[in-house]
Amino acid sequence: MAALTPEVTWAQRSSETDETRNYLYVFINVPDVPPKSADLKLTENNVSFTGTNLKGAKYSVSLDLYAEIDTENSKVHHSPRGVEMVLRKKKLGLEYWPRLLKEAKRVHFVKTDFDKWVDEDEQDEAQEDDYAANFGGFGEDGGLGGIDFSKLGGGAGLDMAGGEAAGEEEEDDEDLPELEGEEKGDKKIQEVS
Predict the structure, then answer these.
(1) Does residue 165 belong to any structural domain of this protein?
(2) For residues 66 and 104, what is the distance between their CA atoms, to the nearest angstrom?
(3) What is the pLDDT of residues 97-138, one digit of tens each?
(4) What residues does 12 pair with on adjacent strands?
(5) Measured by CB atoms within 10 angstroms of the end CB, which terminus of the chain is less buried, N or C?
(6) With helix as H, strand as E and coil as C, how does the chain read?
(7) Where is the composition biased (Acidic residues) (predicted)?
(8) Which pLDDT value is given to residue 185?
(9) More confident residue, 8 or 164
(10) What is the structure's pLDDT at 75?
């Protein structure tokens, strides 16, 4: 069986003065490929991956990069979902790379990671998640990076003990006006002809 080409997503940041803010986020989507059956190679101009998942499917991809990366200061994390990388760009500069790959032709398996992408002119204003240290927002302790779930939708304003929104009283149906053609206690509704 021929090797499958995995989906690769990417985003980037640039800086002409701070090398720690001059990097690429690259994710190779290879679910259920254990680290022991995977081979990842980083060079200044290339990222290559081969591996076999638990069901026996083989994956292989080689990415000739647009420009050079600093392999010494790049980070790799192999998770059950795939391989996450923060690749440090070798050359400092404000301009983004125009594409991930050296060759200008479009390839179907490389996609922009819009969850991490920030436009070039907005990168200084954007709140930075420390993906370089926490790989996707998970804290070093394996937690969810200090997310306060009580502030997320769905439960906003709920008093968990009483189940009602703070400051609201239970409505009484007796205070509601009657519908046209309906008498109190009568469930018949007048038909409109």
Answers:
(1) no
(2) 9
(3) 999 999 999 999 999 999 998 887 776 655 555 444 455 444
(4) 24
(5) C
(6) CCCECCEEEEEEECECCCHHHCEEEEEEECCCCCHHHEEEEECCCEEEEEEECCCCCEEEEEEEECCCEEEEEEEEEECCCEEEEEEEECCCECCCCCCCECCCCCCCCEEECCCCCCCHHHCCCCCCCCHHHHCCCCCCCCCCCCCCHHHCCCCCCECCCCCCECCCCCCCHHHCCCCCCCCCCCCCCCCCC
(7) 166-181
(8) 53
(9) 8
(10) 97
CATH number of the domain where residue 12 is located: 2.60.40.790
pLDDT at 119: 82
Q: Is residue 69 in some structural domain?
A: yes
24 in a structural domain: yes
The 10s digit of each residue's pLDDT in 18-48 is 998 999 999 999 999 999 999 999 999 999 9
Query: Is residue 74 included in any domain, yes or no?
Result: yes
The whole-model pTM stands at 0.65
State how far the Cα of 55 lies from the Cα of 51, in Å rounded to an integer.
12
Domain count, the chain: 1
